[in-house]
Design goal:
This protein is an alpha/beta fold and 209 residues long. It has one domain: 3-Layer(aba) Sandwich (Rossmann fold), CATH 3.40.50. 29% of the residues lie in helices and 16% in strands. It contains 7 helices and 6 strands, in the order E-H-H-E-H-E-H-E-H-E-H-E-H. The protein has a 6-stranded parallel β-sheet with strand order 2-1-3-4-5-6. The longest helix has 12 residues.
Length: 209
């Protein structure tokens, strides 16, 4: 296969929960809503049609990251790096929610082995995120000033957030603005935590790279 007809690669990292204290995780299991009942309606969300929406020009990697109910950064790092043998230069990285925070931390601390065409951080908690329920992204925390290392290896950094995000407060994006001065910020008013059926803006943006 020659270079000009290779499919463009996109790696998508999903979200999850992460607790610093195990007892907070147990409490969350006791109190959170049970969603996977037999008569539950299937949630329509843009991630389920990402491959179809981007089309045959793209090769989409959507790894199922370990233990997303109480994720640990070191586990995600190991699993993420397992995919490196399948990747090549000009890959696009997309992280949603905790997945966005993961990419921000990873690219702030590690040298990615391939040229990155663009990074998208969607509704990503900052490295200083806190939450009163204990779902504070504990092991995913990182010093925000380390984001300078991300910008040194990625020219096109895209940070997307919605003002009405009820999971990751809009104030979190303001911290990214402070440390990612060269990034492109796209702010919506009505996408909440990007828990929406369709996200054509993302498809169009990736296709236009």
């Amino acid at each position: 296969m020659t270079g000009f007809n290779m499919k463009k690669q996109v790696v998508f990292i999903h979200g999850g929960d992460s607790f610093s204290k195990y007892e907070d995780f147990l409490q969350d299991l006791k109190t959170k809503q049970v969603r996977d009942l037999p008569d539950s309606e299937l949630t329509q969300i843009w991630t389920k049609t990402l491959r179809e929406d981007l089309g045959d020009e793209f090769e989409i990697f959507m790894p199922v990251m370990p233990n997303k109910q109480n994720a640990q950064y070191d586990e995600w790092k190991i699993w993420f790096e397992r995919y490196f043998e399948f990747l090549r230069d000009d890959v696009v990285l997309v992280g949603w929610s905790l997945g966005g925070m993961f990419l921000a931390k990873y690219l702030s601390e590690e040298k990615f082995p391939f040229k990155i065409k663009a990074v998208y951080l969607l509704a990503a908690p900052s490295g200083e995120f806190t939450d009163e329920t204990g779902n504070d992204c504990g092991s995913f925390h990182f010093p925000m000033e380390n984001l300078v290392n991300l910008t040194r290896q990625v020219d096109k950094v895209n940070v997307w957030h919605s003002i009405d995000d009820f999971v990751v407060n809009y104030k979190q994006v303001l911290l990214y603005k402070k440390y990612l001065e060269t990034a492109k910020f796209v702010i919506f008013e009505d996408k909440n935590h990007f828990l929406v059926p369709e996200l054509p803006e993302l498809h169009d943006s990736i296709k236009s790279l």
